[in-house]
């Protein structure tokens, strides 16, 4: 179902880029003229293989605007299993020289996500001290895989954005797990 929706959204964006999406009288036709938009059209189709394998969905609030979309990550295992975490991804005009901006819209008790939704992930930084930062060869597929990995193997308790969560994990892992579960129940369950 999600793949069908994504294909419909891509088709609508492609139709608009070809000049057919404005409809009759007064509709605004948007053409894909920037490098970013051309890259995004190509990369959205590459994302399909990742989205079919993972428990992640992509939603384009406006199908003619590929530069802003919502990813919902639903981990199947681990501490955050059962939660549904929404991330807003905004792709700047300078893409692919500059990384996308990502904000978590779901409150989550996590060492790499602040209470305000900031995300600590090396590949989202131009200058990363660990050498895994953004490079023009990276794609949206890398961003999706990186965000998914925050809930599995890339969870970093040593270089934490949410120091309180990391400290709680180090001092009292059981209390940390209980707080993760409480946040999932309160903020990350599908209704």
Automatic annotation (TrEMBL):
Domain UBC core: 35-189
Keywords: ATP-binding, Nucleotide-binding, Transferase, Ubl conjugation pathway
Molecular function as annotated in GO: ATP binding; NEDD8 conjugating enzyme activity
CDD domains for this protein: UBCc_UBE2F_UBE2M
Catalysed transformations (reactions): [E1 NEDD8-activating enzyme]-S-[NEDD8 protein]-yl-L-cysteine + [E2 NEDD8-conjugating enzyme]-L-cysteine = [E1 NEDD8-activating enzyme]-L-cysteine + [E2 NEDD8-conjugating enzyme]-S-[NEDD8-protein]-yl-L-cysteine
EC number assigned by the record: 2.3.2.34
Residues annotated as the enzyme's active site: 120
Pathway: Protein modification; protein neddylation
Claim: Disulfide bond is one of the keywords in the record: no
Family named by the database record: Belongs to the ubiquitin-conjugating enzyme family.
Protein name in the entry: E2 NEDD8-conjugating enzyme
Record lineage: Eukaryota, Metazoa, Spiralia, Lophotrochozoa, Platyhelminthes
